[in-house]
Amino acid sequence: MASESYDFLLKFLIIGSAGTGKSCLLHQFIENKFKQDSSHTIGVEFGSKVINCSNKTVKLQIWDTAGQERFRSVTKSYYRGAAGALLVYDISNRDSYNALGAWLTDARTLASPQIVIILIGNKKDLESEREVTFLEASRFAQENELMFLETSALSGENVEEAFLRCSKNILTRIESGELNPDRVGSGIQYGDGTIRKLSSNKPEVSSSDGNCGC
Prior knowledge:
Elements: E1 8-16, H1 22-31, E2 44-53, E3 56-65, H2 72-76, E4 84-90, H3 94-98, H4 100-111, E5 116-122, H5 134-143, E6 147-150, H6 159-176, E7 188-190, H7 192-201
Parallel strand pairs: 1-3, 1-4, 4-5, 5-6
Antiparallel strand pairs: 1-7, 2-3
Family: Belongs to the small GTPase superfamily. Rab family.
GO molecular function: G protein activity; GTP binding; GTPase activity; metal ion binding
Keywords: Endosome, GTP-binding, Hydrolase, Lipoprotein, Magnesium, Membrane, Metal-binding, Methylation, Nucleotide-binding, Prenylation, Protein transport, Transport
């Protein structure tokens, strides 16, 4: 199998309380199917996928962290150098929503204040059991400068969109100069294609096509 070629590699986290469907979101995104055996994650699970986003080929390295308190000390070490995160709660479980503030603080202090986070209200398929309204969560996202989507890991609704939207935001910030892939711990690496593009552009200092002035 030929080695993958990509423009950027981004490190992602999936964080939130136990039982919110984090592993199911990862599995649905990677495998395009629902994970039937949904036992709690012990420590950390890992997955990767190459996507096309904003005319770039992007490889996502995704770390799915355990939500149970007894694993917090282990999972916190994985926050370092993350470029993006899915902050997940269960729309049918108010306790998981109430815990969001603590998870958000962890992400911004342990990973980076610049980490790009999308708030995910998972289990959209459990509408009849809803405990957290769309409007309430939307307000929380706005107040904390987060993107926001409701998803269903069961049906796949908005799952790919969540990763795409977060990735697109990171790429936009790279192009604007707000995020620097060369900074240690940025959670962003150049792929071979991008390095070639950059080095071939080096003699002409001014690049007119605003494409990837990363």
